[in-house]
Amino acid sequence: MSDIHLTESMQDYVDGLIRSGSYADLGEVVRAGIRLLMQEDGARQFYALKAELGTAAAAAESGAFADFDPRGFESDAFKS
User: Fold this and answer.
1) 52, 59 Cβ separation under 8 angstroms
2) What is the pTM of this model?
3) What is the spatial distance between Cα 71 and Cα 78, in angstroms, rounded to a whole number?
4) Distance in angstroms (rounded) separating the CA atoms of residues 3 and 15
5) Do residues 14 and 20 make contact, with C-beta atoms less than 8 angstroms apart?
6) SS in 3 state form for 3-54?
């Protein structure tokens, strides 16, 4: 494991979590923190995609779209 350098207040907080039995050691605390960051990042990506889809849907509803030509997009798929 890499060296982890914490501020004094962070170290006190982690020590309290370990003393309380919430976590067995610093590694568990770090893994829990990383899981939260990964969830937050996933949520951020979800909301960004949702916003992009909303923008695209509004554009399509206003008529700002082009007809899709599957043959032009993937011409090899239509060769016999």
Assistant:
1) no
2) 0.59
3) 7
4) 16
5) no
6) CCCCCHHHHHHHHHHHHCCCCCCHHHHHHHHHHHHHHHHHHHHHHHHHHHHH
Q: 70: which DSSP letter?
A: H
The tens digit of pLDDT for each residue in 24-40 reads 999 999 999 999 999 99
The radius of gyration of the chain's CA atoms, rounded to the nearest angstrom, is 25
**pLDDT tens digit sequence for 39-58:** 999 999 999 999 999 999 99
CA separation (Å) from 59 to 46, 47, 53? 20, 18, 10
Contacts of 12 (CB under 8 A, 6+ apart): none
Of 3, 48, 54, nearest in space to 40 by CA:
48
